[in-house]
Design a protein that fits this description.
Length: about 350
């Protein structure tokens, strides 16, 4: 690997400077991506390895990040489980027939992930070729809880109250669904590593909606099951949006890094995790709207506060569609110029 800063930071090794990449970097704010979006539907982009590869390497070439993340979506897992997912431009994901009964959960079949999601594996192999070991390639999945939220709610939501209602009124059916998602996700991530992913990130975007007690019951135990099944195959990063309350517990898992959002200070996050793991984050994505000198100053301060080692510079959640490319670049440059 020509640039292995990211993998070294995940192993806790000394680095000249911290590596940097941005969640959701492969897409929506890049003009070249928007052009492809006019020509091909979302799932055409996701299911055509040549398009997926082109989109995945875009931010490496255009913004200069130290890692690529394969262009895909967390909702390919429900699709593989034969639950229909539509991506409506301007609205987001819609599941026309959401899961609301035990019978529906029981009807979800055992599937061969390798067969159903072969296009993801083809895309990983093609992207590895295209990257030619310039930077590492990240594979990802949603946490079982976050995927469950969409499967039960049927669409995005600020509160996911239907998903929560399902957990609290039909816990047995909810756990059966979470188990089915967990098993498919483990098989999926193992196959992703076999197809070339150098590291894995699990996105628990909606974990922060749960109370600390419910977080362990409905989210963390399933994340732990996944981490335990794959950590010996590749380094694993767990990003829990709004999950600061669980950081201490999360640091006990065999993860290489924990992702954090911008609502916790670097100091507190280090206190909770005690340098057991590398931390990744946590620039407020909306702060990329600030003038460039301000972005650079805040990015440098962020590294000062996390420290240079056991740290991966990133945003605290996905990059927003209205961020100018020059601002994203300035953020990346500030980290590259550090020290
Ligand atoms: O760097 C990358 O962008 C890699 C690819 C990636 C996508 N989705 C592509 C995408 C990744 C890592 C995801 C993860 C994802 N998808 C998450 C977890 C991360 C997070 O942001 O919390 C979640 C919750 C989803 C579900 C999802 N997919 C939503 C809510 C939406 C609609 C809103 C949005 O983000 O625009 C999507 C659609 C989606 N997934 C788009 C992209 C580029 C936008 C659609 C388009 O460009 O046509």
């Amino acid at each position: 690997m020509k640039n292995d800063l990211f993998l070294r930071a995940l192993r806790g090794e000394k680095v000249e400077r911290p590596p940097v990449w941005m969640m959701r970097q492969a897409g929506r704010y890049l003009p070249d991506y928007m052009k492809l979006r006019e020509k091909y539907s979302f799932f055409e982009r996701v299911e055509t390895p040549e398009l997926t590869t082109e989109i995945t390497v875009m931010p490496v070439h255009q913004v200069g990040v130290d890692a690529a993340i394969i262009f895909s979506d967390i909702l390919v897992i429900p699709q593989a489980l034969e639950v229909e997912v539509q991506m409506i431009p301007g609205t987001g994901p819609v599941i026309p027939d959401p899961i609301r009964t035990k019978e529906q959960v029981e009807a979800i079949p055992e599937i061969d992930v390798k067969d159903r999601l072969h296009y993801v594996m083809d895309a990983l192999r093609l992207t590895k070729q295209e990257l030619n070991d310039a930077v590492p390639l990240i594979g990802f999945a949603g946490s079982p809880w976050t995927v469950f939220c969409y499967m039960v709610e049927g669409k995005g939501s600020k509160t996911f109250d239907k998903a929560k209602a399902f957990c609290y009124t039909q816990p047995e059916a909810a756990h059966l669904l979470l188990e089915k998602i967990t098993h498919a996700t483990i098989a999926y991530l193992k196959e992703k590593v076999a197809s070339g992913a150098d590291a894995i990130q699990i996105f628990d975007s909606w974990g922060g909606l749960l109370s600390p007690v419910d977080y362990e019951i409905f989210s963390l135990r399933y994340i732990r099951e996944i981490v335990e099944a794959i950590h010996h195959l590749a380094p694993v990063i767990v990003f829990g949006k709004g999950c600061w309350f669980a950081l201490e517990e999360m640091a006990q898992m065999p993860v290489s890094a924990l992702g954090i959002d911008w609502t916790i200070s670097p100091h507190m996050a280090r206190e909770f995790t005690q340098y057991h793991v590398t931390l990744q984050g946590n620039f407020d994505p909306a702060r990329l709207l600030s003038p460039i000198p301000e972005i650079k100053k805040l990015a440098r301060q962020m590294v000062d506060n996390f420290g240079k080692y056991r740290y991966v510079a990133n945003l605290g959640h996905g990059i927003l569609p209205n961020i100018p490319v020059a601002h994203a670049k300035a953020f990346v440059e500030a980290i590259k110029e550090y020290g």
